[in-house]
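Consider the tokenized backbone below.
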């Protein structure tokens, strides 16, 4: 089976830099894939992407060695299994708040007896190799999103679920749940302490900790702290930033933004 380079990097103690795809285009996915990211996540929760486009994006990413991931809209087994069958090498699942939800998520990603994933890796066998079915359980990555006060309370129970490879912090929803306001690259000492808590519990259970960021500076800070997967912005966010920089240079002014968004 084709190597999951993220797992290999994590096994060596390295941090991976993840790109984020929200634009529903195989071309933009291919363009991003050729820019040197370690992995790319197809965002089917807040991105503008449906299944058929996600399939085309997975094919576009396959023109490189970049690891293809997908964030599903919800903890629903059907779309999880369908994306894995299409060739995603890892699934990020939003709003995991309890051990039971984490177990259900992991189970949907694993073939029996470790889970209840149905057999039928239509494209995955072509992408990964003919031995996919026997090797997938130890190759596919499961990432549970931690983004609520409830998840924080249950963090120990969540990360101890067998077969969970990583937790992935959604900073906007987590800050909203804890403080009532949206923050992304935290400066609040209390929120930074929350990140430290999640990281410590994850490391205790040998689970990778990942986080979404909006800036290179904060992403580097998170790697220094011990996070092994950092996402910086998104394809739409990077395009917006480049457009704003160009307009500013040309016209000297640009429309002010006051929104806090990881995308």
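A designed sequence for it:
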């Amino acid at each position: 089976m084709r190597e999951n380079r993220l797992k290999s990097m994590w096994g060596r103690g390295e941090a991976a830099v993840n790109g984020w795809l929200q634009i529903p285009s195989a071309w933009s996915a291919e363009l991003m894939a050729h820019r040197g990211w370690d992995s790319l996540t197809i965002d089917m929760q807040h991105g503008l992407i449906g299944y058929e486009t996600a399939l085309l994006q997975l094919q576009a990413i396959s023109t490189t060695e970049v690891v293809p991931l997908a964030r599903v809209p919800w903890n629903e087994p059907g779309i999880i299994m369908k994306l894995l069958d299409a060739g995603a090498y890892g699934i990020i699942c939003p709003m995991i708040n309890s051990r039971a939800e984490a177990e259900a998520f992991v189970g949907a990603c694993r073939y029996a007896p470790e889970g209840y994933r149905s057999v039928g890796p239509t494209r995955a066998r072509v992408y990964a190799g003919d031995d996919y079915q026997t090797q997938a359980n130890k190759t596919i990555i499961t990432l549970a999103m931690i983004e609520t006060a409830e998840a924080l309370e249950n963090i120990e129970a969540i990360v101890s679920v067998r077969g969970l490879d990583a937790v992935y912090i959604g900073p906007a929803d987590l800050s909203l749940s804890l403080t009532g306001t949206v923050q992304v690259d935290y400066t609040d000492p209390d929120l930074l302490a929350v990140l430290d808590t999640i990281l410590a519990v994850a490391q205790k259970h040998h689970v990778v900790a990942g986080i979404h960021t909006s800036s290179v500076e904060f992403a580097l800070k998170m790697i220094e702290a011990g996070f092994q997967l950092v996402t910086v912005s998104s394809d739409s966010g990077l395009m917006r930033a480049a457009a704003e920089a160009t307009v500013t240079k040309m016209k000297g002014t640009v429309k002010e933004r006051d929104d806090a968004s990881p995308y």
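The chain has one domain: 5-251.
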